[in-house]
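ligand=potassium ion
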Amino acid sequence: MGILEKISEIEKEIARTQKNKATEYHLGLLKAKLAKYRAQLLEPSKSASSKGEGFDVMKSGDARVALIGFPSVGKSTFLSLMTSTASEAASYEFTTLTCIPGVIEYKGANIQLLDLPGIIEGAAQGKGRGRQVIAVARTADVVIMMLDATKGEVQRSLLEKELESVGIRLNKHRPNIYFKPKKGGGISFNSTVTLTQCSEKLVQLILHEYKIFNAEVLFREDCSPDEFIDVIVGNRVYMPCLYVYNKIDQISMEEVDRLARKPNSVVISCGMKLNLDYLLEMLWEYLALTCIYTKKRGQRPDFTDAIILRKGASVEHVCHRIHRSLASQFKAPVPSTARSEWA
Ligand SMILES: Nc1nc2c(ncn2[C@@H]2O[C@H](COP(=O)(O)OP(=O)(O)OP(=O)(O)O)[C@@H](O)[C@H]2O)c(=O)[nH]1
Ligand SMILES: [K+]
Ligand SMILES: [Mg+2]
């Protein structure tokens, strides 16, 4: 049996297994197996065919935003509207075949916006240019999932599944679980909160599936088996995602209202230039950039020219942005780890 078949077998079994107390170990184990096969599926192709021409765009500016969506939802139209770069837009699918970068200038920051080919179901397994597109998405600070407002929900759940299957976690934080493999001593399991989804036995079963027999595990949060598996597997990316419903000129006011109220969602029309300012405001919030204004002694700060820092930046980062040798000239060492307020 190939890996794809194994994956589909397990998915089917998970789907037909009722979720209850009696099946929780069985389900936990199935999920661990599934995560393992998916990881295998992604490994070999990394070196082989994942690099398409035009996909290795240099990171530039203060942050990177990737446009992910089905074909013809309006990604290229959006890039051409928001940046000075023109990306061909047309009514036929797969107009865009490579990664096209543009720059949004907003509040003194340069935000790199990447237009990408449309992706479809099966993208993670290499359909179309799905793999390359997803590889680029992993490098972004924020993903804009662009959806056609007339067919939004189906597209949204399919794409979420694709991204989920390659370890991208949207609008979720890293599970608060301390996990450390050891050389010996068996598995030590503890939790600081009441656990309703995982137990010591289930954690052990999952760890054994990964051939881990010695480790320290501390749950600081009531996590699910899936979240625990994410921690063991380790290479997950946790990313803010804005769901952008485009083409609202095609749907009723009631429908616009319903979509606009969904969490992490913005409704727009590129065609009629509706709500684009609000989208930018939301994007800025999701990027969570910090602006620092500097001033010369005795003068007013220059509010037109900020030092833009990303989440997790330290005082050392600020010094480097002012001058490369500044940090080394301080008498006391400059903190190189982030202050908690920024992290
Ligand atoms: N009615 C309407 N049409 C739009 C809107 N935005 C884009 N379109 C149209 O949708 C079609 C597809 O737009 P593109 O920008 O090429 O879409 P894309 O997502 O880049 O498509 P691919 O590159 O093929 O994946 C074009 O005919 C656009 O004119 C909108 O807000 N309303
Ligand atoms: K198109
Ligand atoms: Mg396009």
